[in-house]
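Q: Could you predict the 3D structure of asparaginase?
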Amino acid sequence: MTAKKILVLHTGGTISMHESENGGVETGVENPLTGAKLTLPDVDLTVENIFNLPSEHIGPAHMLALQQRILAAGTDFDGVVITHGTDTLEETSFFLDSTLAVDFPIVMTGAMRSSNELGSDGLYNYHSALRVAADEASRNRGVLVVMNDEIHAARFVTKTHTTNVATFGSPISGTMGLLTKRQIIFFYDLPKRHALPIANVKQNIPVLKAYAGMDGQLLELLAAANIDGIIIEALGAGNLSKEAANGVLYLLSRDIPVVIVSRSFNGVAEPVYDYLGGGVQLEKAGAIFATSINGQKARLKLLIGLDNQLDEATLKTYLHQF
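A: Sure. Here are the predicted structure tokens for asparaginase:
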């Protein structure tokens, strides 16, 4: 049997950190995973430390660098594993999933406990990710997130708990698969979609969460700040106060794309209510509903759409699709 060639890209995060004497978790010069001895028959690893950053320090420029490295790898590898901090892992995985059209597995993992903490989960998650990346059944599934014996699709995964090792979940789709001691099991396939290329990630796109009593003042201030678009995490299925709705109308009058998602943890955003601030009137005015994703992912999707210079109708379709 020919050995599977897996490219490992370490980016930092808790999985590469250690707990100091005073109990704080901090970065170090050495990544504890670099010298990890794992028993994986018929797997050859090429390991690179591409970054050593807390995930809060990772932005679209770093995501683009990862994407470019994977594209450069071409057909030289049978799979890619990326270790990453958990706070923004869902965003990096979504960015890669949305911009890479490859058939080999790309698997992201991290840890909630650093390398020398009691019950550290990093090495186990790393081993699990390598298993999934080397499995033939993982091909053509887009980017996967593997932690805590579960497999999630980048399209739907989100961090659900601040500290629990079982932090990642997929509220809309459910867990895509799981690992046992002997098996890797997938429960479903996702609908296919086209990834879009990307060359520039400099667009200025803020994310704003709606709240009771929200007015339009902040939206008008943002309109004057040379933003390229805005994501609003609206109430319920996609509704706003009438004052905030007037702010949206002002943004749209300035040809600034406004994308509506829900601030709710579960469900989809869609226009239902037909009054000032209701989703129906927001959509009629020109706001775009990103149906199935949260604010941070919608921001990346809008960034990708704008970089591809999608026209208004195509951008709407792109943001609306699952």
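Q: Anything worth pointing out?
A: Helices lie at 60-73, 89-99, 122-133, 217-223, 242-253, 279-285, 295-307, 312-320.
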